[in-house]
Write a structure and sequence with these properties.
This protein has 166 residues and is an all-beta fold. The chain has a single domain, classed as Calycin beta-barrel core domain (Lipocalin, Beta Barrel), CATH 2.40.128. It is 0% helix and 65% strand. The chain is built from no helices and ten strands. A ten-stranded antiparallel β-barrel has the order 1-2-3-4-5-6-7-8-9-10. A hairpin with a 4-residue loop joins strand 4 and strand 5. It is globular and about 45 Å long.
Amino acid sequence: MHFDIPDDINEALLGVNWLIGTWTGNGHGEWPDQGEFEYGQQVDFSTNGGPYLHYICQTWTLDDDGQPAAPLTTETGYWLPHDDATVDALVAHPEGWIETWYGRIQGAKIELTTDVVAAIPDATLQVTGGQRLYGNVEGDLMWTWDRATKDIPLQPYMWARLAKQG
């Protein structure tokens, strides 16, 4: 795996530096009330010099020609890496819930598990937990999201292989 380390990178970000940038591609998903589906995805990790990454993930449905059709979901938040190769993430969803995640950085692999999920009373889904995996494989971002809800136990939900742009 080759990536450049900017001269002005905050030292706290050295273990997650490989994530910085824009990643795009198509992914697959499956959920009991949705069945199997394909989607488009863009994930952005950026830094303003602070000891954290800003994160935004956008997904959309695809039309019959594989072009973006309509928003599927969006989430945004912050990743906070620590000196002991752990990382915390704070993620908010416009459907009405927020999550705190914790995990471990192992080279070009990051595994996260939810610590806390909180929702507003009118949240469209009662998410109770999840697991995620981010990995750099042959220069691409491999991404998986397993989730659980009040009615559905933890199971695979979405997964993708995304190419770095630029």
